[in-house]
Design a protein that fits this description.
Structural class: alpha/beta
Helix content: 25-40%
Shape: globular
Number of helices: 5
CATH class: Alpha Beta
Strand content: 25-35%
Strand order of the largest sheet: 3-2-1-4-5-8-7-6
CATH superfamily: Vaccinia Virus protein VP39
Number of strands: 8
Distance between the termini: 30 Å
Length: 182
């Protein structure tokens, strides 16, 4: 697993030991950023089920100003911090150990909003439609912002949800990538 492009192109990233985290493959990561970027002129991101931090770090490498990383796994939080330090992005990041629901509530209270949000929950625990509703209803995604959802291949994702419009959906092996624009 590595940074695909941008300032830190080629740097390797640590993986979370064990099978509790399913990192996004380099092939899928490259496909995602070819759709949503490929590069950014600043902006703010949220990596809600961060795992190794690979998606958020890729966004930082490609020009995003800052990213908030959230994961509930203690090992994942440690790996995210290590990967951020290895890439010299610690100053551009906030890392929190929390579950997705509590994290969204905390971000609402802080009145945060984002240009790019990654939702890559463990396939067995997906509540993507509910999380998308919260994100839209509480204005966590900015106008013209994008949300990238990673789910299992059999998942049905809505075409529209409030102000969100599905702009692309692609299958990669057993992974379904769905991208929304606000």
């Amino acid at each position: 697993m590595r940074v695909i492009s941008g300032l830190k192109k080629g740097l390797s990233l640590k993986a979370v030991p064990g099978s509790s985290t399913r990192p996004t493959t380099d092939k899928v990561k490259e496909a995602i950023f070819n759709i949503v970027g490929p590069y950014f002129d600043g902006g703010s991101g949220l990596d809600l089920y961060a795992g190794t931090g690979g998606l958020g770090i890729e966004a930082l490498s490609r020009g995003m100003d800052n990213v908030i990383f959230v994961d509930q796994n203690k090992k994942a939080i440690s790996i995210i911090k290590d990967n951020l330090q290895h890439c010299s992005f610690s100053e551009n990041a906030e890392v929190y150990r929390n579950d997705a629901n509590r994290a969204l509530k905390a971000l609402i209270k802080r009145e945060r909003s984002f240009d790019l949000i990654f939702l890559d929950p463990p396939y067995a625990q997906q509540q993507l439609a509910n999380e998308l509703s919260i994100i839209v209803d509480f204005h966590l995604i900015r106008e013209n912002g994008m949300i990238v959802c990673e789910s299992g291949l059999g998942t049905t994702m809505p075409e529209h949800l409030s102000t969100l419009e599905r702009v692309r959906q692609e299958a990669y092996g057993d992974t379904l990538i769905t991208i929304y624009r606000n």
